[in-house]
Each structure stands twice: as C-alpha cells, then as structure tokens.
Amino acid sequence: MIKVAVTGAAGRMGGRIIVALHEAEGVSLSAALERPAHPLLGQDAGQVAGCGTLDVKITDNINDAVKGCDIMIDFTTPKVSLKNLEVCALFRKAIVIGSTGFTPEERALAHELAKDIPVVLAPNMSVGVNVCFKVLADIARILGDEFDVEIVEAHHRLKKDAPSGTAVRMGEVVAGALGRDYRTAANFHREGIIGERTREEIGMQTIRGGDIIGEHTVYFIGTGERIELTHRAHTRDMFSRGAVRAARWVVNQKPGLYDMQDVLGLR
User: For 127-233, CATH number?
Assistant: First the structure.
C-alpha cells in the first residue's frame, strides 16, 4: 500500500485528490496538510473532502506528514511547492507537483532538488491534455511555418496565473517542434496599430470568468483552411486521477525530474 500525503487538503483540488485516493486501489491517505492557522485544522480530511471518515486529521506539521508517507501530492503554489519539495528531498520521499506558474528559476531549483528524489512536475495531470501535447508536436512539425499558431485558454475567475501552465506548455511544445524559442515567439498582447502578424510569433490569449475549470484551443491557421485542437475540462477529477496515477508510477522511479509524458509513456 502506497501511503500518500496531500497538501492543500481543505481546498478544491486537495479534496478531489483525497476522494480519488479513497476510491483507488493500492494507495491510501496517510496525511492531510494545510497552512498554519487554517480554520479546518484538526478536522477529519475525509469528512472535509466529502468521502466519509478516514481517521486522518488535517494538520500543519509537514515534517511528521512527510516522515509517515511514501509520496506527497502537491497542488498549491510554486513557492509552497518548492518548500514542500525541499522537505521531501530531506527525508528522501517522492513528490508529485501539479502547481502552475513556475518561473524558469523555480523550475531550475526543482530540477536541482530532483537529483535526490523522484519528482513529477507537470502543469496538467490530465491524460487527455498530455495526449494533446504529443499530438500538437506532430501537427506543428508537419504543417511547418506556413500556418500561423494562436493559443486561447479560459479558466475560472479565481485563477491567479496567466497564461495557464497548460497553455504555456502547449506553446513550448509547438515552438520546439517548429525550431523556435517560446520565450521570444510568444505574443501576449495586441492593441492599437501593431502592423501585420509575423510568421514566427505564437499568439497567447487569456480568458477569465465564472467557474470555467479549464479550456484550451490551439489554432493552426493557414490560407483557406485551419485546424483547431481543443481540450475542455468538465471536472477536476481528471486532474486528481492523473495525480494518483503519477504517484503510483513515480514512487518506484530513480531520482530525477519527470512529467506526465514520462508517466504515460508518451516520449
């Protein structure tokens, strides 16, 4: 039985991960973490998540939580995730990170810490989205520079980072397949007299509103035709199930930084 510690246990995503662990075989919730002074500290994590009593109290003691687990699943923020990663590295425990919005410097730090433990760091744990990543590279490579590329993403009004980590990864995948540098090719803003579109740029547009869980569309626009590849999330459960799948896989891997393409064998 793989023992799993879950961070952000009282949040929307943390709750769905706890439910997914409860429903899955071969894994169990060993610890539920929340920030200090959270109003639900001491409550049963299963009752908070809505899946019944699990006899695991929500705690803010990360050291005890990590000592008693085989792996941590973390969907928080980059800064919190990196702190949790440092603790996991100290105790030689694996970790799955689904937080988004990492800077290049933060990713570099994660890569350094992953020299000691196996880490899955992915902007999106959905199996469908990761299939899209693979397909996008093939489409971009085949179409080449004759098609303009635009990426539009939509999320709920509470999302803090923009563009989404998934949209950024889509842009990186397309740019890599076309031999471009995403950091210079990405165009995040158009306003006023901007002149004609360059062939190299990849448009990145963001929509925020309501309770949209997540939608991503990549447009390949040519002369007289276009291809649209769209992924829509209808529930957060696909992310939680993907995280549990990643936890099962990575706990037996050698130290290193992995993503969902590795977990799903899509490389």
Answer: 3.30.360.10
Helix, strand or coil, per DSSP, at residue 263: helix
Fold classification of 2-121+236-263 is Rossmann fold (3.40.50)
Alpha carbon distance 51, 35 (integer Å) = 22
Q: Which residues of 104-120 are buried (b: 16+ CB within 10 A; e: fewer)?
A: eebeebbeebbeebbbb
Task: Give residue-wise pLDDT tens across range 42-84.
Answer: 999 999 999 999 999 999 999 999 999 999 999 999 999 999 9
pTM over 0.90: no
Annotated catalytic residue 159: yes
The yes-or-no answer on residue 155 being catalytic is: yes
Distance from C-alpha of 221 to C-alpha of 234, rounded to nearest angstrom: 27
Residue in 111, 156, 159, 189 annotated catalytic: 159
